[in-house]
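User: Fold this; tokens only.

Assistant: Input:
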Amino acid sequence: MRNNVGMKALAIAIAIVIVASSVAMYSATDVEKGIDGSGGKGVISLMPPPFIGVAGASLVDVAAQRAGTTFLKEEAGISAYTNVGEAIDIEKVKATFRTIEYETNEYIIGSVPLPDYEETEDVHVYVHKDGWVVTYYLKEEVVAKILDWNDYTTDEKITGTKLEDGVSVVCNAACVPIRDLKYYDFRYPNAEKLMIIADALWSDGTDTFNVKLPSDFVFYERSYSHYLNPSPYYDGNSDMYIDEGKISDMAGYRTNYGLLSPTQLSVDDFHTVKIIGAHHVDKTFDAIVLVYREA
């Protein structure tokens, strides 16, 4: 199956799209018809947290500053954050950390493991007693690493990210709610939005979709994620292509992700993204992830 996905249509209406192997969940036309005034089906907006002064942002109240946050500008890339609206007991959340890098009476910084993921997928976490929780991946890591493929089990939208999972782990331990979760990339202070366009195969086969990036958008990062879960007792293998160029191949259970160059995913042209599954694949997914600003 092939679907043409014009990004400008998607940018108006939907953040995370799964194009299933048998049914296109959203075509460009369907997305436009599905617009709602609340923006509930919009892209993921990127907004700076109020305690961080960033280039291009308005001045923040000094009282909003939080101890220990300057390191975020130095080492953080894509992040998710919340203020739970009440005090957090640092002692309660310490047990969730695999490693603790820094700790004071006010805040803690370290890495937190995610359920059903290896240590390489741990999220970095900053927790302040005043109620702030920030999860992030390092600035050297691609945005596509946030995809939580374990969360996708049916022909529906992906409903969360690994950063959100990390926030949940910490908030559950602290017995506090998650309130108004937001995303921000510390590397790209002028970026406004994040989009994920994904495809899924549930058995051996081939599937494609087409994507076009408009030239009047400013793109800060293009990256990909490629996931394979073979059938039991088989290695299985999967390949991912953009146009005629193979960008990822794998055998056995694993996930690949990496950067895409402006040449690989140039603007104003439809590019064909293809996924192949062979030798007893249970499921294999691929995704293009874009960080951008509408000019």
